[in-house]
């Protein structure tokens, strides 16, 4: 992350005496952004304080004599207090509302800045949540041994629903790796993130799925990661080669990913990229569709010696496409647990969700959906799952 640099000189005379505070949460790649003071609304636009937002987007910024200049990669934004004229890498653009000052804080338009840097921005009117998916952020390294401490950034008061039965779509291109679907928790409650094929950040890397675990009276989600080996994912049987421990859906050989057609759906004409081995199932396919580890009714699995070793290896975080995929999944009401009752219409996709690639059944989350969904997921435990709910 680039450091944030400010140059404050002569006090500015152009200001806004007050602005309505916005009761909202700003998320950057699914992580809450702490802003002090809080965001405000000006002429229907969300404005955020200068301090913190540019750093969160990976930009460096200089603030001098009423001019704000921010740079990220090859993009430079120039804004002026009290002016609706801005420039993005030399191209003049017009803002709906000019940047302004309230008290000692300078406010800038959040959507304009994020989109100028090529990021995706979504606003949920019902929950008052602003979501920013930073598309050009590289997959960050996860320090050795810090997987559980740093990645548990989602906490829910109730266990997630059971995993749904679904078919895997065919792999769209060689060297893509399957990322299984999972339940995530946000301001809307539990929602389904469809399984999808993902291009790994580097040749030779495998995906360890995230998982829910019961700890200290609540449910914590530990995000997945990329690494040379598949580590612990809670003993959850996601299917398609992820049967609770390890991965038998494929392997890297000589810079090419080989697919095990016993558990993955690929083009069988890829003669030099497929093999068939069903002997490694080990009975995990018959496991009940529990989606969390520990706690009442949860999966009683702990890392084995190999998975403990993998925890200490070098890992990479989710790719920008994976974060974007989750970002857009949360905006579709059909993914809400209360709407699909644990059976999402679009449980899997060939390619990740994006602004230009939505599920064909997409419908935006409505205000009344949120309270209904949160109550539904809290009141419906999955501790008693019918025996026929299996992979």
Which key features would you list for this structure?
alpha+beta, Copper Amine Oxidase, Chain A, domain 1, 2 domains, five-stranded antiparallel β-sheet, disordered C terminus
Q: What does this molecule look like?
A:
The protein is an alpha+beta fold. The protein has two domains: 25-133, Copper amine oxidase-like, N-terminal domain (Copper Amine Oxidase, Chain A, domain 1), CATH 3.30.457; 141-379, no CATH class. It is 14% helix and 30% strand. The chain contains seven helices and 31 strands. It has helices at residues 50-56, 110-116, 147-151, 305-311, 320-329, 337-340, 367-379, and strands at residues 25-28, 31-32, 40-42, 45-49, 60-64, 67-72, 75-80, 85-88, 91-94, 100-102, 105-109, 120-124, 129-133, 141-142, 154-156, 177-179, 182-186, 189-193, 195-198, 206-208, 211-215, 218-222, 225-227, 237-239, 242-243, 250-253, 256-260, 274-275, 292-293, 315-316, 348-349. The strands form ten sheets. The chain has a five-stranded antiparallel beta sheet, with no helix packed on it. A four-stranded mixed beta sheet has the order 2-1-13-12, with helices on both faces. A hairpin with a 2-residue loop joins strand 17 (182-186) and strand 18 (189-193). It starts with 24 loop residues before the first strand and ends in a 12-residue tail after the last helix. The model is unreliable at 1-18, 143-152, 282-287 and 382-391 (pLDDT under 50).
């Amino acid at each position: 992350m680039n450091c944030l640099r400010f140059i404050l000189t002569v006090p500015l005379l152009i200001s806004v005496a007050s602005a309505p505070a916005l009761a909202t949460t700003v998320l950057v790649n699914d992580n809450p952004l702490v802003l002090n003071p809080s965001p405000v609304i000006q002429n229907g636009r969300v404005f955020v304080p200068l301090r913190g937002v540019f750093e969160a987007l990976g930009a460096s910024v200089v603030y001098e004599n009423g001019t704000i200049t921010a740079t990220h990669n090859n993009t430079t934004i120039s804004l002026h207090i009290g002016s609706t004229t801005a420039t993005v890498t030399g191209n003049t653009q017009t803002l709906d509302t000019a940047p302004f000052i309230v008290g000692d804080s300078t406010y800038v338009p959040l959507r304009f800045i994020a989109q100028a840097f090529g990021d995706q921005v979504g606003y949920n009117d019902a929950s008052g949540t602003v979501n920013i998916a930073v598309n050009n952020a590289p997959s960050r390294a996860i320090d050795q041994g810090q997987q559980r401490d740093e990645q548990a950034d989602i906490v829910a008061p109730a266990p997630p629903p059971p995993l749904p039965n679904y078919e895997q779509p065919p792999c769209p291109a060689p060297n893509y790796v399957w990322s299984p679907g999972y339940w995530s928790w946000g301001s809307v409650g539990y929602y389904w993130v469809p399984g999808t094929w993902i291009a790994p950040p580097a040749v030779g890397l495998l995906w360890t799925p995230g998982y829910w675990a019961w700890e200290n009276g609540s449910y914590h989600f530990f995000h997945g990661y990329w690494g040379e080996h598949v580590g612990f994912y809670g003993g959850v049987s996601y299917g398609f080669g992820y049967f609770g421990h390890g991965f038998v859906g494929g392997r890297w050989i000589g810079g090419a990913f080989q697919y095990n057609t016993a558990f993955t759906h690929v083009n069988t004409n890829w003669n030099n990229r497929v093999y068939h081995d069903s002997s490694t199932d080990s009975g995990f396919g018959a496991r009940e569709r529990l989606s969390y580890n520990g706690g009442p009714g949860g999966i009683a699995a702990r890392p084995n010696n190999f998975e403990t070793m993998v925890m200490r290896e070098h890992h990479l975080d989710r790719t920008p496409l994976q974060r974007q995929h989750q970002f857009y999944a949360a905006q579709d009401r059909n993914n809400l647990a209360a709407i699909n009752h644990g059976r999402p219409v679009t449980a899997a996709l060939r390619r990740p969700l994006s602004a230009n690639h939505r599920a064909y059944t997409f419908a935006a989350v409505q205000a009344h959906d949120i309270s209904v969904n949160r109550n539904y997921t809290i009141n419906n435990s999955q501790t008693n799952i019918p025996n026929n709910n299996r992979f």
